[in-house]
Amino acid sequence: MNGYAGKILHVDLTHGSTSADEIDEGFCRKYIGGNGFSIRLLYDHAPPNVDPFDPDNPLIFAIGPFAGTTAPTNGKYIVQTKSPLTGFQGEAVSSGFWGPALKHAGYDAIVIKGRSEKPIYLFVDDRNVSFRDARSIWGRDAIETLDLIKEEIGDDNVCSASIGPGGENLVRYANITNDRHRQAGRTGVGCVMGSKNLKAVTVRGTEGVKVADMEGTLEYCKELYELCQGPLTGAYRSLGTQVSIMIHQNQAALPTRNWQESTFDFAESISGEYIHPRWVVKTLACAGCPIGCDHVSLVKQGEEGDVLASVEFESLYALGSNCGIGRFPDVNRAVDLCDRMGVDSISAGATIAWAMECYEKGILTEKDTDGIDLRFGNSEAQLEAIEMIAYQKGKLGKLLAMGTKEASKKVGKGSEAWAMHNKGLEYPGYDLRGLKMSALGFNTSNRGGCHLRNSSYDFDLKGKVDRFTAKEEYGKLVMDRDDMWSVVDSLILCKFSRGVLDTYDKFVKLYNLITGFEMTAEEMREAGERIWNLEKAFNVREGWKEIDDYPAPRIMKEPIKGGIAKGHLVTEEEFRLMHKAYFKERGWSSEGIPTKDKLQSLGLDRIADEIGVEAD
Amino acid sequence: MSQRRTVISEPDKCTGCKICEMVCSAVKEGEFNPLLSRIRTVRLGTVVNTSLACRLCDDPTCVRACPGKALSQDEETGIIHVDEDKCMGCGWCIEACEFGAIAMPKDRKHVIICDLCDGDPKCVEMCPQEALSLKTAEEMGQTMRKKAVANLLKLTV
Q1: How far is the alpha carbon of A212 from chain B, nearest alpha carbon, in Å?
Q2: CA distance A251 to A542
């Protein structure tokens, strides 16, 4: 097949065995790749209501038809599993060079089940798959693990995706790292990997990728590259995602001190504008990316040595403003520590911020924090907390390793009121109280509080909708973006190319040149809708209820205190209005369950029988 | 070499995206495979990124090193030709090349070297960062001098 490798690798860690399945054009057209492949595989291979730590919970890596070609931003892969953080479908997308390596090795996806008795890493060496002893690297940080494996094999062409101590110690929001600074960050995919005693998945691919129309592909890619060097991606190239700090600050949308405020007194000192001339030393790109958004910062820390990190906006929010920390060198160090420990910086920062508020309110005392003075703004305390979390050390480490949702349940005493998550996934840095379309889009996300299922904030922050008014029409706007982003995560394209690759017509043009299929824009849109419905079906099977979509209590009860959005919040009534409109647009029941008719119309007949309801 | 144009990579502009490798293998081999590319990227310690291709040396060490006389240099263009029938795949030229510009793909018995695509290399055309260019030594010197002056002014402003 052109574009696709045409094979899925199945790995059983318990028995140390592997096998491969072929995939055909029908499967490819229906699920596209990446997210679509992996959610279909998750639905089929995860036993209903499986415990996320059960060896039977599959950990799935998948790439799309664009990986390993010249398609712009093709360096992506996705990891899918049942999330130990949310109990629902958990997915995390990473970038770099691992995805193309898997294509060159001859696979579109890897489904990993079981649990190894001893720590191992999986080595996919073209079609030869082996299990290698990882006892000597178990315990090593996520970044050095990548180098250690490269040294052990002795070839720069190997690329690993590895966990750090966070994943080994079952931190619920542990991530998976590749190419030093890139992570499959969210929903605790690294935790599931750790539960399988799997330190890394290492790939070496030497086979070529064939496409249907090489000349056409190169010609169209050249056109797209030129656009990617124009104004449509300008912000990513100049300051990267760090540009968002001042945008959010000015819009009173920068969650600060665990969302107690929405502007930060020290925002400027953690802004891209301030950071770039002082600390950014290099701009990097992932495989096949004509944009280049990774602005790497180097902070000289004197005796402690230099700290080189890749600091995105979300980390500046989570570990910076949200913890009341306004010195960039402190945030840079915290990001580096999270990356080395292999824990998601958003969830780690948000969980620590929740604990800081508990501490300042006297709900957690020094007895609970193992003596750490966990005030907002104390960066040393934050660093200690990150390390304790990664090793599940002390009372504090064990508590915060559970994530905000479970930790607040355990502590109680009203602390759920400031637990800032949806379905257990901690929110990224967008104060939803004054971004009402986003309040719908982030909370209906199947993986929990997330900005990347539909990027609804584009509409609120760019003034395409009235950000302060909840409207039924947001239902359709969110749905259309969910479906489109499901395709983007399946092809897989980077969302930072969305200024350039912004229509189904453009997706199918590139897709058809690469695969030779004659897909229409409508067929691809429908694939996106199918993928989203399948994610939802998985969640319904695992117990999703309408109430799970509701925003965190603070968003519905405590208005924004200052700035342009002062006084705004999303009332329960406002959320319900948008939520019901969304269900209606989706053709789901009034309680948000996919109907049999809808699922059947998408060619998901068996799933319609399993979870579909009659239309009401 | 001085009067000849070669593919030059400027590390300050190179983001390490590897598009040049993909484009080269596509043009030369009809498929995407970095291991079949005549230009190869290097990333050292994260921040150092660049690409390397044949420099068209005068009296090239690769030609001198070849025990089978499989390599020869075109007098006019300076391009190194590989006689695939004579090349036995021993790899001495790879060791001899001081620029790491020669590769031997898996399953092949002969090496591959950049031939500048008849003077219009596709990698230069497609490099999104304009990090690659086709320049003589003098032209490269001009580029570097401009950069040096720009940097100096940035320091003193």
Answers
A1: 10
A2: 37
If asked whether residues A476 and A570 sit together in one domain, one would say yes
A212 within domain boundaries? no
How many Cβ pairs within 8 Å bridge chains A and B?
A: 89
Q: Are residues A119 and A243 in the same domain?
A: no
Contacting residues for A473 by C-beta, under 8 A, at least 6 apart: A465, A581
Q: In angstroms, rounded to a whole number, what is the distance separating the alpha carbons of residues B32 and B64?
A: 32
State ipTM. Answer: 0.96
State both tokens at A182.
């890139």
pLDDT 10s digits, B100-113:
999 999 889 999 99
Neighbours of A409 (CB within 10 A): 12
Interface residue A280 vs chain B (CB under 8 A): no
B155 confidence band (pLDDT: 50, 70, 90): low
Say yes or no: A463 and A347 in one domain.
no
3-state secondary structure of B6: strand
- Report the residue of chain A nearest B33, measured CA to CA: A208
- How many other CB atoms sit within 10 Å of the CB of residue B56? 21
What is the distance in angstroms between the Cα of A156 and the nearest Cα belonging to chain B?
Answer: 10
Chain B contact for A128, CB < 8 A?
A: no
Helices A504-515 and A474-491, interaxial angle, to 10°? Answer: 20
CA–CA gap between residue A101 and residue A92 (Å, rounded): 18
Nearest to B31 among A181, A209, A288 (CB): A209
Amino acid at A505: D
C-alpha pair distances (Å), A597 with each of A44, A482, A536, A608, A610: 21, 20, 15, 8, 13
**In angstroms, what CA-CA distances link B5 with A10, A174, A284, B33?**
50, 50, 27, 26
How close is the nearest chain A Cα to the Cα of B47, in Å?
A: 6
Question: DSSP alpha helices (H): ranges in A391-520?
Answer: 394-400, 404-411, 436-443, 457-461, 474-491, 504-515
Reported as a single tens digit per residue, the pLDDT across A454-513 is 999 999 999 999 999 999 999 999 999 999 999 999 999 999 999 999 999 999 999 999
List A558's β-bridge partners, or say none: none
| Neighboring chain B residues of A279 at a CB cutoff of 8 Å | none
The whole domain housing A17 covers 7-204
Q: Are β-strands A77-82 and A109-113 bridged in parallel, bridged antiparallel, or unpaired?
A: unpaired
- Name the more confident of B154 and A291: A291
CB-count exposure of residue A532 (10 Å: 0-12, 13-18, 19+): buried
User: The CATH number of the domain where A456 resides is what?
Assistant: 1.10.599.10
- Please give the DSSP secondary-structure letter assigned to residue B59: S
Residue found under tokens 């982030």 = A442
Q: Which of A157, A218, A281 sits opposite B23 (nearest CB)?
A: A218
Cα A326 versus chain centre, distance: 25
Predicted pLDDT at B156: 60
Sheet with A109-113: strands ordered across: A17-22, A7-12, A109-113, A59-62, A77-82, A89-94
Is the bond preceding residue A492 a cis peptide, omega within 30 degrees?
yes
Q: Note whether A181 contacts B31, CB cutoff 8 Å.
A: no
Mutate to test the interface with A, among B10, B13, B21, B22 (most CBs of A within 10 A): B22
CATH number of B6-156: 3.30.70.20
CA distance A253 to A292: 26
d(CA A596, CA A367): 53
Structure tokens given for A200: 């890394």
Contacts of A70 in chain B (CB under 8 A): 19, 22-23, 26, 32, 126
* Tokens linked to A7: 């094979």
Domain assignment present for A425:
no
In whole angstroms, what is the distance from residue A478 CA to residue A475 CA? Answer: 5
Instruction: Name the minimum distance, in Å, from the CA of B40 to any CA of chain A.
Output: 12
A571 three-state secondary structure: coil
